[in-house]
Design goal:
Shape: globular
Radius of gyration: 23 Å
CATH topology: Growth Hormone, Chain: A
CATH architecture: Up-down Bundle
CATH class: Mainly Alpha
Number of strands: 0
Largest sheet: none
Helix content: over 70%
Structural class: mainly alpha
Order of helices and strands: HHHHHHHHHHHHHHHHHHHH
Number of domains: 1
CATH superfamily: MFS general substrate transporter like domains
Strand content: under 5%
C-alpha cells in the first residue's frame, strides 16, 4: 500500500523506464522563457520603485497631511521593516503551492494599497497603507529567483538572473525622476495612481499569461496546471493552453496537500554557515548601495544647490551602471561556469543540466567578484570625499563614481543571487526571502544611521566606513570559497539521513 508521504508529495518520475529520449530540464521554449523573465522583471520593478518614487513627495506630502518630514520618513522605515519580513512567508509559500497564486495575491494587495494611498487623507492611513503596500510587493524579487531556478539550468542561470535584475535595477534611476515630475505637475497623490495603473497592467498580464513553473507542481513544464496555477488565457481560450497541454514527457504529478504559510524555513537557512556568509555579504552590498542612493539627493541639494528635479536626475549614472552590469555580468557568470567546468574536467553536458557533486560552484561564482569588491570599497570612500571636498566644484567626479558603483554593486547582487539559487534549487524563493531578511535589516539600520554619521564626521569618513564594510567582504568570501564545498556535502548527507529516517518512520507506521 502506498504510504501517506507518497500520496501527498509531488514527485518527478519516469513514465516509461524504457524511454530513450532524454527528459529536458524545461519544456518551455526560449520565447516563453523570455516572456516569463519580462513579467517577473516587471513585477520586481515595483518593489524598489515604490521606495524611490516616494522620495520627491516627502515635503509636499508632509505639508498636505499637516505632519513633520520626520514622521513621513517613518513611513519609509516602516516600508523597509515590512519588506524584510513578508518575503520570508511568501517565499516559502511559492516553493510549496506554486508561483502564480502567490504572484497574483501579492500584486492584488499592492494594487489595492496604492489606490488606498491615493485617496487617504490622514497620516495614520498613510502609515498603515505603506505597510500594506510593502507587504504586497516586497516578495516579488524572491519569487523571481524561484522562477529562474525552475526554468534555467546552472550553466545559463547567471544570464537569467542578470536579465531579471534589469527590472529592479531600472527603478532607482527612474523612480526619483518620475516621482519628481508627477509631484510637481500633478500632485503627490498621482504617484500612487501611477503605481496602481501600472501594477494593474502587470497583474492583468500575469493573470492572463504567466505559466506556472514550480517544479513540484508542473515538473519541467510538462504536467498540466490546474486551478489558480493555470493561466486565465488557457481557461478562456481552451485551444490556447500556453504549453499546459503538452504530453508529460518523463514527468508524473501526484497529489499535493496545500501547506500553510510558514516563515521558519527562511530563518532556518540563515543557520547554514555557507549560506549565512553569502547572504551577509549580499546584505552589506545592499545596505551600502541604499546608503549611497539615500544620500544622493540631499547631499547634492546641500553641496551643489540643486533643485528637487535636478536632484532626481543625479540617480541616472548609478542606474545606468547597474543596468549595464546586470546584463553583462550575468553572461560573464555563465562564461565562468563553463570555464571552471572545463578546467576541472567535468562533462560539459552534465554540468549544463544540473549542479553535479563536488563541482566547485563557489569558486566559479565568487572568484571574480573579489576583484570588484576592492573597486566597490574604493569607490564608496571616494564618493564621500569628492562630495565633502567639493572636488573641482563640479558634479562630474561624484557622478562618474556613481556609475562605477552602480556597475560593481549590481554585479555583486547578480553574483550572490545566482549562487544562492545554485545552492537551493528546490527552495530558491525561500533562499531569496532569507536574503531579504538580512539585507532589509542592514539597509534599515544603515539608512537610519546615515545622517547622524554624516553630521558627526562628515560625508568623507562616513562613506569610508561603508567602504571598509565592503572591503571586509573580501576575506569573508575567500573563506566561503574554501568551506563551501565541505558545508554543501555535510548538508547533503544530513538531508539524505533525514529523508531516510522519515521514510523508515512512515513505513513502520
Amino acid at each position: 500500500m502506498a504510504t501517506e508521504k507518497e500520496a501527498i508529495l509531488v514527485d518527478e518520475q519516469q513514465l516509461s523506464p524504457a524511454a530513450t529520449e532524454p527528459v529536458p530540464f524545461s519544456v518551455f521554449t526560449l520565447l516563453q522563457k523570455r516572456w516569463v523573465l519580462f513579467l517577473t522583471g516587471f513585477a520586481g520593478f515595483f518593489s524598489p520603485l515604490s521606495s524611490f518614487i516616494f522620495y520627491p513627495a516627502i515635503v509636499p506630502m508632509a505639508s498636505n497631511l499637516g505632519v513633520t518630514v520626520g514622521l513621513i520618513n517613518l513611513a519609509i522605515t516602516t516600508y523597509m521593516v515590512v519588506s524584510g519580513v513578508i518575503p520570508a512567508i511568501l517565499g516559502n509559500a511559492a516553493d510549496n503551492v506554486g508561483r502564480r497564486p502567490v504572484y497574483i495575491t501579492a500584486l492584488f494587495i499592492y494594487f489595492a494599497a496604492n489606490i488606498g494611498l491615493a485617496v487617504q487623507n490622514n497620516y495614520a492611513a498613510l502609515l498603515v497603507l505603506r505597510s500594506v503596500q510593502s507587504a504586497g510587493i516586497a516578495g516579488t524579487i524572491s519569487l523571481g529567483y524561484g522562477i529562474i531556478s525552475d526554468i534555467a539550468t546552472p550553466s545559463e542561470r547567471g544570464s537569467y538572473v542578470g536579465l531579471f535584475n534589469l527590472g529592479p535595477n531600472v527603478a532607482p534611476p527612474l523612480g526619483p525622476v518620475i516621482g519628481g515630475v508627477i509631484a510637481a505637475k500633478l500632485g503627490w497623490r498621482w504617484i500612487f495612481w501611477f503605481l496602481a495603473i501600472f501594477a494593474g497592467a502587470c497583474l492583468l498580464m500575469i493573470l492572463l499569461t504567466l505559466p506556472e513553473t514550480a517544479r513540484n507542481i508542473v515538473g519541467n513544464g510538462s504536467v498540466p496546471a490546474t486551478g489558480m496555477n493555470r493561466t486565465l488565457l488557457s481557461v478562456l481560450c481552451p485551444g490556447w493552453r500556453g504549453g499546459e497541454d503538452r504530453a508529460a514527457r518523463g514527468i508524473r504529478k501526484k497529489v499535493r496537500l496545500v501547506t500553510f504559510l510558514n516563515p521558519l524555513p527562511s530563518l532556518r537557512l540563515l543557520l547554514e554557515l555557507d549560506l549565512f556568509i553569502l547572504l551577509l555579504c549580499n546584505g552589506i552590498y545592499y545596505a551600502v548601495g541604499a546608503c549611497v542612493q539615500t544620500s544622493l539627493s540631499s547631499l547634492f541639494i546641500q553641496v551643489y544647490g540643486y533643485g528637487e528635479l535636478q536632484a532626481g536626475l543625479v540617480y541616472i549614472p548609478f542606474g545606468v551602471g547597474g543596468l549595464v552590469s546586470s546584463y553583462v555580468w550575468g553572461k560573464f557568470l555563465d562564461f565562468e561556469y563553463a570555464r571552471v567546468a572545463r578546467t576541472h574536467g567535468y562533462d560539459p553536458e552534465e554540468t549544463k543540466k544540473k549542479l553535479v557533486d563536488d563541482f566547485p560552484i563557489e569558486s566559479a561564482r565568487l572568484r571574480s567578484i573579489l576583484y570588484l569588491a576592492v573597486v566597490t570599497a574604493a569607490g564608496t570612500a571616494g564618493y564621500g570625499w569628492t562630495i565633502q571636498k567639493h572636488v573641482a566644484q563640479h558634479v562630474a567626479a561624484p557622478l562618474a563614481i556613481q556609475a562605477v558603483l552602480g556597475f560593481t554593486l549590481a554585479a555583486g547582487f547578480v553574483t550572490f543571487g545566482t549562487l544562492a539559487t545554485d545552492l537551493n534549487p528546490e527552495r530558491s524563493s525561500t533562499a531569496a526571502a532569507s536574503s531579504n531578511i538580512l539585507r532589509a535589516s542592514l539597509a534599515a539600520g544603515g539608512t537610519a544611521a546615515l545622517q547622524p554619521i554624516i553630521d558627526a564626521v562628515g560625508a568623507g569618513w562616513c562613506f569610508t566606513i561603508f567602504g571598509l564594510l565592503v572591503a571586509a567582504c573580501g576575506p569573508i568570501l575567500i573563506f566561503q570559497i574554501r568551506i563551501g564545498p565541505k558545508w554543501r556535502k555535510l548538508r547533503r548527507i544530513s538531508e539524505t539521513e533525514d529523508e531516510n529516517a522519515s521514510g523508515q518512520g512512515e513505513g513502520m507506521g
